[in-house]
Amino acid sequence: MTDTTNPTAGDAVAETARSFDPGTNVLVVDESGGEALPFSLRHTAADEGVAVVTTDHSAPSVADAARRSLADSARLDIVDCTGKSTGVDTPVVDSLVSAGQDLPSVGEATVDTVQSGDSTALSTVHLGSMSTLVARSTVQQVYKLLYMVADQVRANGLVAFYAWDGPSDAKTLRILGQALDRRVSLEGRGEPTVRSSTEWSGDDG
């Protein structure tokens, strides 16, 4: 990761989002919706693999996003936790499995995916959406899930993106972010704002 600003505490732009070190867990805040998944896909190298654990986007919509944003030779695995599983007939998707949409099932499916990374050349995991999971349960329960998944991501040397789609709540994001390492804010067409967990934990956003 390149430190472009040599920031002091409170600076908003600490890093660029061009790359993340293995073992990094990133909260991606996408208030406009629709950009978090492409952002994750673009951070998967051509010879590597990405697993998308989705609680809101259908498998066909994930495949469509991959056609636009994923490198041609990258591997795509989809874990469908929407409760409305549909098949996909496209070479873009290498593996499609279904899991329950309740929080324990999502957590178990995500951890299993991370732990199987060695056998699938996995480098990147996308879990979305945090806002959907919070709506189905509680902030505290989702925090526990993130803590568990993030620990496995670090142990297996992957990079994981956790998408927050839609309007954000500063308190909720601070709580969830305590389990993670970075926060990326996708704002318009400019360079995404990247902050460390310590930088945003004491402010309002």
Written account of the structure:
The chain has 205 residues and is an alpha/beta fold. The chain is 35% helix and 22% strand. It contains eight helices and eight strands, in the order E-H-E-H-E-E-H-H-E-H-H-E-H-E-E-H. Strand 2, helix 2 (59-69) and strand 3 form a beta-alpha-beta unit. Helix 1 packs across helix 2 (59-69), helix 3 (103-115) runs parallel beside helix 6 (139-156) and helix 6 packs parallel to helix 7 (170-177). The longest helix is centred in the last third of the chain and has 18 residues, at 139-156. The radius of gyration is 16 Å and the shape is globular.
Short descriptors:
single chain; alpha/beta; Rossmann fold; 8-stranded mixed sheet; 35% helix; disordered N terminus
Describe, in short, the structure shown:
With 205 residues, the protein is of the alpha/beta class.
Listing every helix as H and every strand as E from the N terminus to the C terminus, the arrangement reads EHEHEEHHEHHEHEEH
Q: Which parts are unreliable, with pLDDT below 50 for 5 consecutive residues or more?
A: 1-17
Distance between the termini: 23 Å
Helix content: 25-40%
Most strands sheet: 8 strands, mixed
